[in-house]
Design a protein that fits this description.
Helix content of chain A: under 10%
Radius of gyration of chain A: 13 Å
Oligomer: heterodimer
Largest interface: A-B, 25 and 26 residues
Low-confidence stretches of chain B: none
Shape of chain A: globular
Structural class of chain B: mainly beta
Order of helices and strands of chain A: EEEEEEEEEEE
Radius of gyration of chain B: 13 Å
Largest sheet of chain A: 7 strands, mixed
Order of helices and strands of chain B: EEEEEEEEEE
Low-confidence stretches of chain A: none
Structural class of chain A: mainly beta
Number of helices of chain A: 0
Helix content of chain B: under 10%
Number of helices of chain B: 0
Largest sheet of chain B: 6 strands, mixed
Mean pLDDT of chain B: 92
Chain lengths: 114, 110
């Protein structure tokens, strides 16, 4: 009965490869997010979708492309992986869009680019 | 430029009260302050949220002064299990920005 789930939990890959991380929430929420947490534990928002519509698109290389097939899923596809992409990526969801709404986070995906 | 600043680390002992302050000078009238707790290898988890004055729940209190340029998370009588990283988040309604502080690593010792 996990609320926000991500797959895979760990991802090790070579530079230049393309990879995807999947996220699903069973809370019935309308808004989903992707965050990147670097080695210094700094959390930075990357994208946010509300009802499958892109709401936030921070300064992120266009090698990163989010895709929301429905309200319960927000996947992150990364092309041409670079060493600097190594980080923990967190998916989150909230009931609706709004900076004051509580977010529920997934367990994270640790991406290591060699 | 919206910025949220908090101490990098703090140490405490079991049973003490811990106060972690977050600075958010650019906060505007309708912006909310939220605190999250993160344990190793887990996602952040909501602790408390406030807009002004004081908010209290079963795990923490949040104090926000009148000018709202800072806020303080107060954890009463911490235990070893409160060892975690605590993040301050300001949701800026103008532009829809979500800015996390860099996180405060709290270490509670016996």
């Amino acid at each position: 009965d996990t609320a926000v789930s991500q797959t895979p939990k760990y991802l090790v890959t070579q530079m230049g490869n393309d990879k995807s991380i999947k996220c699903e929430q069973n809370l019935g929420h309308d808004t989903m997010y992707w965050y990147k947490q670097d080695s210094k534990k700094f959390l930075k928002i990357m994208f946010s979708y509300n009802n499958k519509e892109l709401i936030i698109n921070e300064t992120v290389p266009n090698r990163f492309s989010p895709k929301s097939p429905d309200k319960a899923h927000l996947n992150l596809h990364i092309n041409s992986l670079e060493l600097g992409d190594s980080a923990v990526y967190f998916c989150a969801s909230s009931q609706d869009w709004g900076p004051s709404l509580e977010q529920f986070f997934g367990p994270g995906t640790r991406l290591t680019v060699l | 430029l919206a910025k949220t600043t908090q101490p990098i680390s703090m140490d405490s002992y079991e049973g003490q009260e811990v106060n972690i302050t977050c600075s958010h000078n650019n906060i505007a009238t309708n912006d909310y302050i939220t605190w999250y707790q993160q344990f190793p290898s887990q996602g952040p988890r909501f602790i408390i949220q406030g807009y002004k004055t004081k908010v209290t729940n079963e795990v923490a209190s949040l104090f926000i002064p009148a000018d709202r340029k800072s806020s303080t998370l107060s954890l009463p009588r911490v235990s070893l299990s409160d060892t975690a990283v605590y993040y301050c988040l300001v949701g800026f309604n103008q532009g829809g920005k979500l800015i996390f502080g860099q996180g405060t690593e709290l270490s509670v010792k016996p």
